[in-house]
Queue: 4 jobs
Job 1
Amino acid sequence: MDFKQMVGEQIRKIRKLRGMTQERLAEQSGLSFSYISDVERGTRNISLESLGKIINALGVRPAQLFEDIDEITEHSGNGEIQNKIEDLITLLSERQIEEVDFVLTLAREFLNTIDRKTR
């Protein structure tokens, strides 16, 4: 898989995580639907300007676009878990600290309840 395909896959993943269609991403970014489609398939060489528009439309930090593009993660035994953790990071990254704390508290309580039941 080449770099264009990896970037396109990450854009698609974040877009879907955000509940956006390609049409909505195109509208939000000011780019055409066909351009977004080509980028996601890795058949279009994306410019930095267009990449910036897509990142802004997705509402993520630029680094988040590249966090998941790591062959080590894809080939490790925990790749699926790592992908889920990265999905959570993406979901929580734009939230207020109080919201993140609340989700963290809920997760801890949930996992502690499961741990107590399995003992």
Job 2
Amino acid sequence: MAARSLEIGPAGIRAARTIEVLRTQRGLSQRELAARVTALGRPMSNTMLFRIERAQRRCDIDDLLALAQALRVPARALLQDSATC
């Protein structure tokens, strides 16, 4: 079986940028946001969050939902252009 491509598409890149923008707007460090996500039951290290924000790691739907909850925004907000946040 061929290896699956890890290329991150436009929606993933947009989500990564928006997560970083919202996190910094709220004055949260990567460590603080990762701890919030973990407290919600979705284990996440600050390294994982760093890689998500840099579009070096895919943000799966479970990560996206937990990040939205931790940032106190609707999940769809993470898929919008960060300029509109």
Job 3
Amino acid sequence: MSITQQHVLDTYRARRLGEPAPPAPGAHDWQVVREWRDERQFRAVLAGRPARHRFRDALNRWRRRPT
């Protein structure tokens, strides 16, 4: 059963029971990614490491390199 079929089945069951419909698959993916990133930064601060954005810093270094 695919995730879409499962969602349709859950929505059908919720409607029959008078409950609110579940969120669509993937509706909260970016929120989960942001929370995961915040947790990593928080743990870095607790461990005494700088809470940095490694990918963003590398991209900025690449953009600022002398040509």
Job 4
Amino acid sequence: MRIGELARRTGVSERSLRYYEQQGLMTAERTPGGHREYGEGAVDRVIRIQELYAAGLCSEKIAQLLPCMRDSDGGPSRTANGQLVSDLTVERERIDRMIADLLRSREVLDEVIEAASVPAE
């Protein structure tokens, strides 16, 4: 499929897809006319990249991680090394801290909502 179709199917801009290619996150074949051609697996790859960006990982870390993941189901392969595992553990701890902070913020909002919902006497 061409870049426009991949962009439509994933909801990711063509510009972002070109950036992913520049960063080594994905590859495309070239037609004789120079157009990018992607295989069907590119849809899963783009979705996986988007999930990793949403988790707060940078493109360099994503590039290290992607070879350790299967695109079809997102499950792990057996190619991770010790340094990557260590780096990802740090990322996971960062995400855990973010989750804890968000939960605290939600508790405060719940308290404010509850207090504001009590009818005035």
